[in-house]
Amino acid sequence: MIGVDALDTALARIRVQGSMVGRSLVTAPWGLEMTVADPCMLAAVVRGEAWIGHGDDEPVHLPEGAVAVACGGVPLHMGDHPETPPGVRITDREDCYDVVTGENVAQRGRSGSRTWGDPDAPGSVLLGSYRTDGEVYALLERDLPPLLVVPPDPLVAPVLAAVATETQDERPGSQVVVDRLMELLLFAAIRAWLSSPAAAVPSWATALADPLVGPVLRAMHAAPERRWTVAGLAAEGAVSRAAFARRFRDLVGEPPLAHLTRWRMALAADALRSEPGLDLTAVAARVGYADAFSFSTAFRRVRGTTPSAHRRSA
Question: In this structure, are residues 76 and 43 in contact, taking their beta carbons and an 8 Å threshold?
Answer without folding.
Answer: yes
